Amino acid sequence: MTGSLVSGASNFRDVGGLPAGAGRTRSGVLFRSGNLAAVDDDGIEALRRMGLRRIVDLRDQSERAHDPSRLDDLPVEVQHEPLFLGSVASFFARDLSLEQLYAEIADASADRVVSAIRGILIERPVLVHCTIGKDRTGVTIGIALAAAGVDPDAVVADYARTEALLPARRNAQVLAAIRALHPENVHAEDLATRSPERAMRALLAHLDATYGSAAGYLRAHGMTDAEIHRLREVLVE
Predict the structure, then answer these.
(1) Cis before residue 82, ω within 30 degrees of 0?
(2) What is the pLDDT along the chain (237 residues), one digit of tens a residue?
(3) Catalytic residue among 36, 130, 191, 223
(4) Helix, strand, or coil (residue 55)
(5) Is 144 annotated as catalytic?
């Protein structure tokens, strides 16, 4: 689906239709996006028609205060699961690569990643989002899809779609701000504007090497076999 699925929300899409062995991910169940601060009246109506029941917001309190979600009177439960330990700015200051950032999110915020994915089991349709829907959302959705048995190439391809859906003006502004603060950064452009396939492949390889699989990662951090089985039932038809 396109980024215009919900007017005013960037990078909003359904993760339905992805190949998962003999099946495919269900449409209308799990959505992903950037923040909902600029959703307009048409966007609110689109969310209403979607029947959205739960939103898993991966941003921290300061981000939510700066860009509060517009939800009006939508009957949704909002679940807050901030995934960054430390500020967003700290990742630019440390000049992390995307591969390093994703491994750090998965390892240091594992309990919240698991809690976010449990949100998918509580009620649906569900939206998982962060600020632009690239990194924290990419990690969470990628792990959920991989654990549900979605083909690895499809997990990677879904993640990589983000890059083409980010607004060019936003990319230029963010990159200029980072360059002004950290002119020597090697990874600034990747961190701010890109979702290369290699970054998601590296995350999946990290989970495989450390935990045996994405499902093994969830199991190692408290998710039961029954919950993982349910995740597959919920996401894959």
Answers:
(1) no
(2) 344 589 999 999 999 999 999 999 999 999 999 999 999 999 999 999 999 999 999 999 999 999 999 999 999 999 999 997 666 667 777 888 999 999 999 999 999 999 999 999 999 999 999 999 999 999 999 999 999 999 999 999 999 999 999 888 887 888 888 888 778 888 888 888 899 999 999 999 999 999 999 999 999 999 999 999 999 999 999
(3) 130
(4) strand
(5) no
